[in-house]
């Protein structure tokens, strides 16, 4: 089935979105937090860092020459220049007297032995000084290696250790790198006040639970309805074409149900759940323990006789258009529930959270921004290789492949007569619609 995203016809490909934020570790869940707490703590850390940097620079002057590392040849040249510099700067002898040159030669013979010994001692002293400097540099290099990559590690060996690790690290990009995203061009401009927190939200497939279908950037002060309006699922289109579209839906984030009741025909799908939780507390407690601890742990507890300490949360319900992301408590990396069209469920994950960056889009009207959208791939007809397949057959004796995909035209030419009756029935036919 073809994925048609509302507003995708008019897109602006020139808006860069910075990547980065807190370090995200797959399969790990952070502690419970809130947007205001994160924002306050981060601003406090920034202020402390600025104060510390300003205090350090006010008392210490750093020069580039102090940071330069000299080679052995450079140090030796500097030492020799210092030794001979004093002798080159000595005043030359006055040769205006007749016997000045003769007296100079004679005195030079007497001083030659003394000068050579002085020169040797000066050179030895300078060389020892150079050696001390070189030793200090080696010690500095050794200390710096503690905070840097090991040069003995070969890149090829590390690169081939695990391709899975490389795939995980693709989402970790520096704040300076940008990527282009599709945003609907709007004439309206609503400035984003600073400070503002940007949340990165992932939406996963309703059937292939491990397949991510969307990634969006949401502002901390936005309502949850803004996120729901940007989530795309083909089930909505199927139900709408069938004339059975249901505007009802809800989020479950931690212990808060957030039903969408903006449409007058919408139904609060959370009422039966809350009613069951209230009237079937024992059964709900058992199911909650299975969710938290898992079935294996529950069997071990039944055998060992351990008592469970996990308590069923006190769930509550707040309408989706009345609650913002900054009003919720959540855990980074945890999976939460999005339900729509009755029983179509998706896992949503708040991957990370960061302050808004100068390179971010500062137009509130454009948020939430879709930074990733899964592209659907469709199977073509195995006969014509041109049109999209609409039917698939199994155990068909006249097909080269099993299963074999057909478009409507090729299927009718091979299997149907002019009156639309089947030429043979030794096959199984299915309608082919791919999400």
Give a verbal description of the structure.
The protein is an alpha+beta fold and 435 residues long. 37% of the residues lie in helices and 18% in strands. It has helices at residues 35-59, 64-67, 72-88, 100-145, 155-159, 163-169, 224-230, 234-241, 270-279, 281-293, 295-304, 408-415, and strands at residues 11-18, 32-33, 178-184, 197-204, 212-219, 249-253, 256-259, 316-317, 330-331, 335-340, 344-355, 369-373, 391-394, 404-406, 428-431. The strands form 4 sheets. An 8-stranded mixed sheet has the order 8-7-6-10-11-4-5-12. α10 packs across α11. Its main location: nucleus. Residues 86-116 are annotated as: Disordered.
Span of the ends, CA to CA: 5 Å
Output the structural class: alpha+beta
Q: Indicate the low-confidence ranges by residue numbers.
A: 1-14, 91-98, 146-163, 165-178
Counting DSSP H or I runs of 4 or more residues, the number of helices is 12
Strand order of the largest sheet: 8-7-6-10-11-4-5-12
Q: How confident is the prediction overall: mean pLDDT?
A: 75
Rg (CA only): 37 Å
Largest sheet: 8 strands, mixed
Strand residue percentage: 15-25%
| Number of beta-strand segments | 15
* N-to-C series of helices and strands: EEHHHHHHEEEHHEEHHHEEEEEEEHE
Helical proportion, percent range? 25-40%
What is the general shape? extended
Give a quick precis of the structure.
The chain has 435 residues and is α+β, with helices and mostly antiparallel strands. It has twelve helices and 15 strands.
Features:
single chain, 435 residues, alpha+beta, eight-stranded mixed sheet, three-stranded antiparallel sheet, 12 helices, disordered N terminus, RNA polymerase II cis-regulatory region sequence-specific DNA binding, transcription, RNA polymerase III type 3 promoter sequence-specific DNA binding, bent DNA binding
